[in-house]
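re: the backbone from monday

yeah here it is again, tokenized this time
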């Protein structure tokens, strides 16, 4: 909320566009880092060794579902198909 108030009342429109571009770049990097961290936290070797590998199979099915579901949600929210995109394309 503080950032929104500062941008609204104390930052000029030109500076606001520069900040918006910077935030877009950071958003892309942090989105990628999020998926990297999920991968770093997973020990596939332990999943395969435990219970005949069934947890590994369930893990891969769940990850595939999660990836597809995430792509659908991101597309709906950012494509402008259902809602106006929060950051309009250049």
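seq for it, each position gets an aa:
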């Amino acid at each position: 909320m503080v950032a929104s108030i500062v941008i609204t009342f104390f930052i000029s429109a030109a500076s606001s566009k520069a900040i918006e571009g910077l935030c877009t770049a950071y958003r892309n990097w942090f989105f990628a880092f999020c998926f990297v961290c999920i991968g770093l936290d997973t020990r596939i070797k332990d999943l395969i060794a435990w219970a005949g590998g069934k947890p590994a199979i369930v893990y891969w099915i769940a990850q595939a579902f999660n990836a597809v579901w995430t792509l659908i949600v991101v597309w709906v929210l950012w494509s402008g198909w259902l809602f106006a995109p929060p950051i309009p394309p250049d």
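Residues 78 and 86 are 7 Å apart (CA to CA). The mean pLDDT is 81.
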